[in-house]
Amino acid sequence: MAPPPPPSTLIRTRNFVAQPVVASFIAGGVAGAVSRTVVSPLERLKILFQIQSVGREEYKLSIWKGLAKMWREEGWRGFMAGNGTNCIRIVPYSAVQFGSYNFYKRFFENTPGANLGAGQRLACGALAGITSVTCTYPLDIVRTRLSIQSASFAAIQRKEPGARLPGMWATMAGMYKNEGGFLALYRGIVPTVAGVAPYVGLNFMVYESVRVYFTPEGERNPTAIGKLGAGAISGAVAQTCTYPFDVLRRRFQINTMSGIGYQYKSIFDAIRVIVAQEGVKGLYKGIAPNLLKVAPSMASSWLSFEMTRDFFISLREEDDL
């Protein structure tokens, strides 16, 4: 009896992308691009709020007035400033995060496919956060620079209207050349990792725990509305708990820019100076637009992730029929 013919290239490809880690990697990239584009104006406004030290009043505004100021001064481009770089960063960042989470789960499962406990989910998420941020950090710091270079801060020299601003690669090259070489592209990574690890860990832990309560009885998965709700809750909880680290990350990323008004020596020095000059609320600057954006951001992220992942995983099932 002749042996069965080898599977075609198409079948091998479909079976490859249907593997849980690979499907999660691809779906994570899609989820990142979707979620960040949806909330780009609020993401940029959050950064402009975060970087203001004491004595700077340009963006001491309500959320709606801040958005109106961005629109009035820069138009639609102001809403999307830095979003191209952010998407270039967030696609691999989110892909690595979701893919590595599913990779690390293997080491915590008693049996393949077994449910993890809350602590195990937290640990897997923390490791996934550290992995993803380390791989993509230079793009994050450049995105921050691009987000503020056209904003109307008095001490930062602005280009004339219509003048071409440096792009992603030019900004990265300038930092490398003028601000300390390769290490300049990783400035602020310590507070970033300190904040990202618990944030991602909490996000995965809360989402996978909460989604159970959104799942109809007798079903394996929540409805689309249920996934949106679980994603919004997980994002809000994780962001609120870890927000001061996000402020520190932004401050350190522009710590060496001329005219910005502060140069912190260490994380503890930054916390001391911020609390002394701006109060404890200084560690929560920009949290209002951030919480306003985190619900649609994480909701759309989790929904698009699960839909894309399930699609790729279903390819193997079709081939095995």
UniProtKB/TrEMBL annotation:
Membrane topology field: Multi-pass membrane protein
UniProt keyword terms in alphabetical order: Calcium, Membrane, Metal-binding, Mitochondrion, Mitochondrion inner membrane, Repeat, Transmembrane, Transmembrane helix, Transport
UniProt Solcar repeat ranges: 19-107, 116-213, 222-311
Pfam families referenced in this protein's UniProt entry, alphabetically: Mito_carr
GO function terms (MF aspect): metal ion binding
GO CC list: mitochondrial inner membrane
One of the GO biological process terms: transmembrane transport
Localization of this protein: Mitochondrion inner membrane
UniProt-listed InterPro entries: MCP, MCP_dom_sf, MCP_transmembrane
Function: Mitochondrial transporter that mediates uptake of thiamine pyrophosphate (ThPP) into mitochondria.
Family designation: Belongs to the mitochondrial carrier (TC 2.A.29) family.
Stored PANTHER family: SOLUTE CARRIER FAMILY 25 (PTHR24089)
Name this protein carries in UniProt: Mitochondrial thiamine pyrophosphate carrier 1
Organism for this UniProt entry: Cryomyces minteri
Taxonomic lineage of the native organism: Eukaryota, Fungi, Dikarya, Ascomycota, Pezizomycotina
